[in-house]
Write a structure and sequence with these properties.
The chain is of the alpha/beta class. It contains six helices and four strands; from the N terminus they run H-H-H-E-H-E-E-H-H-E.
Length: about 180
């Protein structure tokens, strides 16, 4: 009986002062990557993704698909349903994808998503691939939000993440798949 009483319209009531995106300090921060850091060593994490990146790259090369008109879009969940270990795995998977895209000179964008209206782009198509971008992705994914809304994230990506010179988009959604 409880499922019959669920309202399908409306929005998630967020607490007052609950940000809809990370602060500008996080988004614009420049990192001294791994310089005397006690936190997650980004350089080591990036090195650990080399094997998967090479497999992805080889499969793209062997594929009969034309990638010259294609761009990549990576959507990564940051909800509290993912443990920190699983979030790190998601970032490593996304890092492998970004390295393969970069090697193929395929433009790509990265967006973080979670609950209602919490979708934002952290790497634009025209921005360069960098270790700072990987570190920013890790920091943003570690933010704990409510349950994800995958359909909203896909709609956000479809409407806003458009590469000007590439009409085809390949979407990669990295999530635990739980969507209320």
């Amino acid at each position: 009986t409880r499922i019959k009483n669920i309202k399908l319209e409306g929005s998630l009531p967020l607490p007052e002062g609950f940000s809809k995106k990370p602060s500008p300090e996080i988004m614009n921060q420049k990192y001294a990557v791994d310089t005397d850091s006690e936190e997650v060593p980004i350089k080591k994490m990036i090195e650990l993704t080399d094997h998967l990146s090479s497999i992805l790259l080889q499969n793209c090369i062997d594929s009969e698909c034309s990638l010259k008109d294609t761009c990549g879009i990576i959507l990564i969940e940051c909800s509290q349903t993912l443990s920190p270990e699983n979030k790190l795995s998601c970032v490593m998977l996304a890092t492998s994808l970004t390295k393969a895209f970069n090697a193929m000179e395929m433009p790509y964008s990265i967006a973080i998503f979670a609950d209602y209206k919490f979708q934002f782009e952290i790497k634009k198509f025209d921005e360069s691939h960098s270790d700072d971008m990987i570190h920013k992705m890790l920091d943003c994914v570690m933010v704990e939000r409510f349950a994800p809304r995958i359909a909203d994230a896909c709609d956000f990506a479809k409407q806003t993440l458009i590469c000007p010179n590439r009409p085809n988009r390949a979407f990669f959604i990295i999530s635990d798949g739980l969507d209320p």
